[in-house]
Amino acid sequence: MESLAADIIDILGTISFAISGVITATKKRMDIFGILIIATVTSVGGGTLRDLLIGKSPVTWILNTSFVYLIFIATVVAIIFRKQLRYVRKSLFLFDTIGIALYTITGVQMGLLIGLAPVICIALGTITACFGGVLRDILCTEIPVIFRKEIYASACIVGGGMFVLLDHFGVNTVINSVISGSLVIVVRTLAVIFKLQLPSIYKKEELV
Amino acid sequence: MESLAADIIDILGTISFAISGVITATKKRMDIFGILIIATVTSVGGGTLRDLLIGKSPVTWILNTSFVYLIFIATVVAIIFRKQLRYVRKSLFLFDTIGIALYTITGVQMGLLIGLAPVICIALGTITACFGGVLRDILCTEIPVIFRKEIYASACIVGGGMFVLLDHFGVNTVINSVISGSLVIVVRTLAVIFKLQLPSIYKKEELV
Amino acid sequence: MESLAADIIDILGTISFAISGVITATKKRMDIFGILIIATVTSVGGGTLRDLLIGKSPVTWILNTSFVYLIFIATVVAIIFRKQLRYVRKSLFLFDTIGIALYTITGVQMGLLIGLAPVICIALGTITACFGGVLRDILCTEIPVIFRKEIYASACIVGGGMFVLLDHFGVNTVINSVISGSLVIVVRTLAVIFKLQLPSIYKKEELV
Question: In what residue span(s) does the Glycine transporter domain sit (chains A, B, C) (predicted)?
């Protein structure tokens, strides 16, 4: 039951990341192949970088074709209905936020399992959640959006930190995942509702 | 004899990729060191990414200095004769096309050897053939050309798919390589001659 | 004693790379999180790529949290005093130059230890020293500065070559490190003082 819930969220997260890839790639007028690559990189890029850094090989998606097919289908559907994507923006935001929450927890857990230091585990969680988007932006020659204006990675860092803390105090992994994952979602959602940003280090005249 | 032919094609492919790196890097007015790096990345980048993804370490070129020297010589010669490169454009196209055909087959074969799923093998072949060029364009801060307008990766996917199919039916590897490699070359050549592109998903007014 | 000196230089190099990341990232008006990522990538990027290429896993920084904390502190201090950074430009240049000298020697040594060919060892040293900066520039969507105008990588290649040569003749590693590292520093410093560049392959009218 828990496993089914996790699978569904995993699927929703993957779909959401793929769609965000489609949106960025179509803005750059890429062809179908390019869009497919960007969607795939957005979905699996963060986990791939994490796997490379910790030496897990082959990387996860190489061994799991279901996600490759899922990304393919999500991309094709998103291309067909791309004009309508604006009407489901709120659902997309929800999926995306659930997606980064899940990816964060997965990354932190993998670090803890192989006994890495807390700060490194939090970094791995954040990398898993955020670097698919970073690679997406780099392949589209844009400065990664999460480096500039969103409380996005910060939500992952907060949630990842909570997971490490609760794990340290022996909290059950499932309960911990729910609490820490929810924290990511809450922080990110509040930030978007109240238009919160990280405190700016620039003076007004520097930003013109 | 077959091995000699494969070696010659491998060498021609490497030279061709290195030259395409020189052409892109000189357009960006890079210095000699920069040009050399771009030429190297174009030549070995796809295979390196494939090796990292499947966990082959160290990566291939680290253990094979002949290709490093070959790239170095090709780069120096291409820099010296760069004004004349336009007169050999057709030969370059031929080498490049043979190169991606060979790289595709190599990548697919490595995937099959370690028992990966067909769709992943095709992806590895395409990555081997195409991601050197993607990295070249990213290092030059250009949106990768194969994401935008060429039947390039598509030829690799078709040829890679054919290899997996024939392999499934037990066709001899050498014969299979010749057939599938030729298919890559034919698809790519026809696409360029008849100016074929992937079907556009954009309306005319979106492309202005 | 020697180890202490090496540690101090290592720390100064890391700080210097982190600061160069802060300078580039603030020019792009990144937020605090983005600046921190760029500083980290600049510091650990070259070593990470080297580790991936030779198959050392997990990569070095994953197992050594002191550098993560050091980068964090250096970044925060550099952000606070970023207006004053211009007054310490000469010290920064010194740290940076010592940093690339040290990183070069580390990379070459790791290659020699696992028995790689001389030319590959020199390449690994240069990658260790220079690719943090390349990744920094790519993440900021700039063409990497070392591909365009500085005797930077060339100094690493010369020093790395010297290390391989002296090692071949059985020179003690500590003495070799001092000689070859100093050579990197001297070449780089002379190049900046006398404004040396690699010989240009472009005619004047091409550079307008």
Answer: 8-82, 94-167
